[in-house]
Known about the structure:
Radius of gyration: 21 Å
Strand order of the largest sheet: 2-1-3-10-4-11
Number of domains: 2
Helix content: 40-55%
CATH superfamily of the largest domain: Bordetella uptake gene, domain 1
Oligomer: single chain
Number of strands: 11
Amino acid sequence: MVRWLFLFLAASFPCSALAQGYPTKPVRIIVPAQPGGGLDLVGRTMADQLGRALGQSFVVENVSGGGGLIATQTTARAAPDGYTLMVGYVGTHGTNPAVRKVPYDAIKDFTPIAMVGGTRNILVVHPSLPVTDMKSLLEYLRRNAGKLNYATGGMGTLNHLAMEQFRGDSGFEAATIHYRGIGPAIVGFVGGQTMMMMPGVAAALPHLRSGKMRAIAVTGTARHPLLPEVPTFQELGYKAYDGVQWYGIVGPANLPPAVTARLSAEINKALATPALRDRLSGEAIEPMPMSPAEFGRFIQADIARWSALVKERKLSVEE
């Protein structure tokens, strides 16, 4: 009996010691994108917050390529010791696993630590179109069936699936123009190559303010605080339009529970401060604090949501 107790204590000691002293060296936060944009902003903001709270360096490492595949595999294969974290987002842990075969399991290969926040999608039309609201847009689409097009940031991305959801529910036909990223898609839209799209509010905001995009409706259950004049899809009779371009912090599977709990607590504590909330809200990212368990359930639900849409719409998204 004493021998088994000794073995148990010996096996559990490393995890206990790690949790109590963590972190004792720099921690890297992998961002699955190039510098700039929402992913990088979240990564650097969390690195700054955690570094100050835990008295250790949290270093951002930008790992782009493969639509997040390189970053996710790097993270999943890292030692589960709390020294490799990643900004998981709707692409790596939502739409990609739902629409294509990926070389990782978004649920089993990762430890959900904390949700940070999300930016909603907004349906916009080119200002050259003679429409100002949902009613006039649908009438115009019916009069010009099959003559219009819409832009996406890539096949199977959130803005593509959100637009497909709207197209299916509204019953109109339009050509789909896929770009390699939301940036090029917006450039094409502003240049008049496409007529509609559904980007995140954060990406659309500068163009809405300059008049190069015209807002029709926004996802979510309440009007966006930065765009109070724009109705929600729900107000206009569309249900289940609450998907968001979300961002959170994950680690490899089997992170020590105490390390996960400590990181989660510090992130959620930071999200409760007015300064951080204002900083994120200024970038159209609405804070969405969750416990690790809640974040894990959110990821599973998001994958299920988009998997169901792909199956229902019979979308072919393999590239």
